[in-house]
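Input.
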Amino acid sequence: MPSDSRIRELVIVGGGTAGWMTAASLARHFQGSGLKITLIESSAIGTIGVGEATIPTIRRFYQSLGLRDLDVIKATHGTVKLGIRFDGWLSKESSFIHPFGVYGQDLRDIPFHHYWLRLRAAGEKTDLGDYSLAVALARAGRFTTPSPNPPSTLSVFDWALHFDAGLFAQLMRQTAEKLGVRRIDAKIEKVELNPENAHIAGLLLDTGATVTGDLFVDCSGFHGLLIEGAMKAGYEDWSRWLLCDRALAAQGHAVSPPPPFTRVTAHTAGWRWTIPLQHRTGHGYVYSSRHISDADAEAELLAAVGADLKMAPRRIAFTPGRRKQAWKGNCVAIGLSSGFLEPLESTSIALIETGIEKLKQLFPARDIDPLLAEEYNDWSRREMERVRDFIILHYWLNRRDDAAFWRDCRAIDLPDTLTRKVEMWKRRGHIVRYRWEMFQPASWLAIYAGFDCLPDSYDPALDGFDLPSLSRGLAGMRKAVADTVADCPTHQEFIDRYAKVVL
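Output.
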C-alpha cells in the first residue's frame, strides 16, 4: 500500500468504556506507524457506565495492552466472576449457574453431555453443574486461578471480572494517553460532510475549532451522533423478540464475602441484577415498559433492595436492536452506537472488543474501500444476531405462568436461526456452532439444561455402553471436581491476599 494512501488521522467521538477501549487498543496496535488518534469527549456529558459485569474475553483484551489481571482488579475495585446465577427463571424456585467453563470429559469423540443424558435415560439423574469446576467453585464461594497445564478437562474453566466501569474507563484512558492518544474536551456542534462522497469531513466544536480526520469512530452512545445523526445508517428494531426496553440502575453497599458470580433474579416484568464489587454492590432492574410502568418497576426494585441503596435509581431507556450499517462511508460505530441488545449475559463490552478487532483486521486506506465496510457489516450482523438468539433463548424457555411478561416471552415466534438450533438440540442433542459466535457450546448446554430443555435422545453409540461402568466413571468426575474445590481458597481470601483495595 503506498504510504500516501494510508489513514493518518483517526478521530474517536465519545469517551467512556467504548471510546477509551477503542483508543487504547488501536493506539497499541498501530504504535510507531504514524497514525494519529484524537478522542473528543465532553466532561459535561455523562456516560451510561453501568456495565459492571464482563465475560472472560475482557481479560484477553486488557492483557493485549500489557495489563495484568491483579492490577486491573485493584484499579477497578473489582472481584472475580465465574459465571451467572439465574434465580427464578424456569420457575419461582429454580436456580442454576451458567459458568465460564466446560462440563465433564468427552470420551471416544462423543461430547460429555451425551454420557450424562444416557445415565438420565437409565434413571440416574445428576446435577450437570456437579461436573463443572466453575459451577462448583461459584457455589462454594471459592476461587483460584486456572492451571496453565490442566491435567484434564475437569480442571478447565475461565473467569471474568466485576468492576467499576467508570474506573475501568479511566484505566483505559491512562493507557491510551501513554500511547499518544490526544484528548479534546469539547462538545460537537456540527458534523460537516464532504459534498462529493457524503463522508465526514470534519467536526465543528463548541470551542470554535474544527477537527478533521480520515476515519471517524463513533462511540457516542445510543443516539449515534455520527453513524445515525450524520450518516443516517438506520436501525433494525428487535423488540418483537426482546421485550425489555428499560433499565433502572442503582448502587448499594458492599457485601462480605462477595460471591464470585453475577446474580440475575426474575421479577414481574423482567429481571434484577446483583453485581458485587469491593466497594459497592451494583443493583438494577431490566424490564418491559409494555408490562410494567416505570413507577411500579422502581417500587419493585426498591422493595427488593431499597434499604441497601446509596442513591435513587437511574432510568435508562433503550431499543433492542442493531445499526443496519455499523460502518458507513468513513464512519465506524463501536459500542452502544452500533446497537444494543440488553444487559443479560454481559455482552456489551464484549461486542466493543469484537468491533475493535474487526476494525483492526479490515482497517482501510484513505479511499475507504466499500468492500471492507461490506465485510465488516456482514460480520457484525451475524455476530449480533447470534448473541441475540442466545439471549432470546433465556426468555423463551421459561415456564413461569404468574405474569403476562413471562407468558409473552414464551409466545414469541423465534427467528429461523434460533429455531434451527433448538430443533437440532431437541432431536439429536447436537449443539449447532457457527462462525462469529460469542458463546461456546458449553454456554448453550448450560442454558438448555438449566431450563430443563433436554433432547429426546442421546448418541446411539452409547446404547452398548456398560451402565455400571458409566455410572462409576461419572461419579469419579463429580468427586474429582469436589476434591479440587475443597482445596481452593475462598473468593474473599483470594481478593484479600492478591487484589485488596484499601478504601
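The radius of gyration is 24 Å.
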